[in-house]
């Protein structure tokens, strides 16, 4: 096909270039949206450290926070503004956002140049210039842009989940570390008491005031106390290092880390959870992620129906010059013929991916309600148990020890009775520390369930 119309008819390609420039990178928008999601759920601000100055400021903030015993809120702030692991996730999400932006852009137009010389006459030259663009990509641009918008929306939610999971990990690590510190200090006190009791038992046996059986019992108590102390020290080191990793502290920062002596006091009562739990269930991030994934796959499914059958449609303008002949202009059109691949497999795959995501979203909705109920029940049971230790068992044991001490002073109780009470008191206090720790961990687990930070895997691969 030839024509004398000017090559300016390739204005279609120019329009394609203009359309390609309309898709701006959404990384900053995603970070801002994730900030809004996190703060709306009571989380602190997080920092994306993209400059040396920002990294230096984060290190200064950490150094200032470590000048005093680290509170739970301070630990979460450090994790969200300093942890290299979180920074890696933020950069990964930024890369995924850029990929989503790229997926909505048109491919560049193709310019072709051809020069042919006649073998019989070197002066006979033919020059061909062509510029082509994918018309199919232009036609599908709105659908691809809609799919990219769905991907960006999913990435914003995933980014918020990443940040809140980092905060949850820091919170749990802090609870474990503080409880382990407290348990170790108490184990050291029990060990000192056991050492003194063992020495006293040996002296009393030598004086004939203790039997070999009584002395052996105190020696066994000493051995058990030393084993408990070794285990407490090992647990304390492990919990502390877990916290160091969750916060992203280096060796110098880890050496400066100090923790409070006790966990926060138990709340007197827990709020009724029915209405709040339903509201939390409706706003769970994992359910919103599943819905965003469904929207993304729905657009991918529509694209597969079209592009699976006609996977190419290129139009272009061509200009040809021959020695001694008038210039020729024309348009070109190329279409792949669906002879060997009709696109049925691609359409079937897109349909299956959508159906799988739909089933996964349904399963997640069922699991979410169950998970929230279980987490709430666990939190309430742990709270009741911790209150029982704090308000009843520990005070009663202290009363028993005090009363027996009075009896001992009046020569109505033996040293053996006092040591037996000390052993029982040590057991109860250790259980009370563990019960308080378990409540705060259960509370963190409930908050994570309410936010939708479950470990249920969600397919977040790019829609194809």
Order of helices and strands: HHHHHEEHHHHHEEHH
Structural class: alpha+beta
Return the domain count.
1
CATH architectural arrangement: Up-down Bundle
General form: elongated
What share of residues is helical? 55-70%
Description:
The structure is a single chain. With about 475 residues, this protein is α+β, with helices and mostly antiparallel strands. The protein has one domain: Outer membrane efflux proteins (OEP) (Up-down Bundle), CATH 1.20.1600.10. It is built from twelve helices and four strands, in the order H-H-H-H-H-E-E-H-H-H-H-H-E-E-H-H. A four-stranded antiparallel sheet has the order 1-2-3-4. A hairpin with a 7-residue loop joins strand 1 and strand 2. Helix 2 crosses helix 6. The chain is elongated, with a radius of gyration of 35 Å. It comes from Scleromatobacter humisilvae.
Compact summary:
It contains twelve helices and four strands. It is an alpha+beta fold.
Task: Considering the chains and any ligands shown, give keywords for the structure.
464 residues, 4 strands, alpha+beta, Outer membrane efflux proteins (OEP), signal, MdtP/NodT-like, TolC family protein, disordered C terminus, disordered N terminus
Write the layout of secondary structure elements.
Layout: H1 11-20, H2 27-40, H3 52-65, H4 72-82, H5 84-103, E1 110-117, E2 125-134, H6 135-206, H7 212-247, H8 251-256, H9 274-282, H10 285-307, E3 314-322, E4 328-334, H11 344-409, H12 415-451
Antiparallel strand pairs: 1-2, 2-3, 3-4
Helix pairs in contact: 2-6, 3-4, 4-6, 5-6, 6-7, 6-10, 6-12, 10-11, 11-12
